[in-house]
Amino acid sequence: FINLIERITYQQWHINITIVIQDSFKLQTIALIDSGAQMNCIQEGLIPTKFFEKPKQKLSTANGENLSVIFKIPNVHVCNNGICIKQTFILVKDLDIIILGQPFLEVIKPFKVKNEGIVTKIFQRKFLFPFNEKPITKEINLLKKTLSMFKEHSINLIKSKENHLYFMKQEISNQKLEQQLQTSQIQEKINSLKNNITNNLCSDLPDTFWHRKRHVVSLPYE
């Protein structure tokens, strides 16, 4: 499949927003639109504590880890290009950017995503939430090269493991053979063969070849 891809294009959905709470607090900042986020999230230190309320929701990240939710902030107006959308935010620790999640997208749908931003209609008026960054296109050749190197490395690793297993099998086989040679039955046979060789071949008067076939040879002289 990778061989059919020549390049990839990706884009982060960062937009400029103004947060307004009860007409007494305003904050211009940047938010990330994330369709995978269950709630709108905001980090500590941006909103005065007088707007906080105790939450009932429990949130988790994409990998299943629990997020530390401290407070929620209701009745927050998210403004962009002359339109304000009422939302509720969850105050989350260890967060480095404001996240506009599924509740925000539910309000503006149906919408279309273009290179310029998110286009939608609210009250029969067309609105554009422009993205701060342009799409980034990267050639896939580097990825192909990386995959090829990884494949070659994996093949070499598999071969080395196979060789290691072969040597281990040989060693185990030799150990089993040595163990079998140490059994009493094998030792008796070895000792019997050893004694037979000693008595018949290595004695002063060996008789091993005495009982072989005899031949009568006629000599040309008397």
UniProtKB/TrEMBL annotation:
Keywords, ordered alphabetically: Hydrolase
GO molecular function, one term: hydrolase activity
Residue ranges of every copy of the Retropepsins domain listed in the record: 15-108
SUPFAM superfamilies documented for this protein: Acid proteases
Entry protein name: Retropepsins domain-containing protein
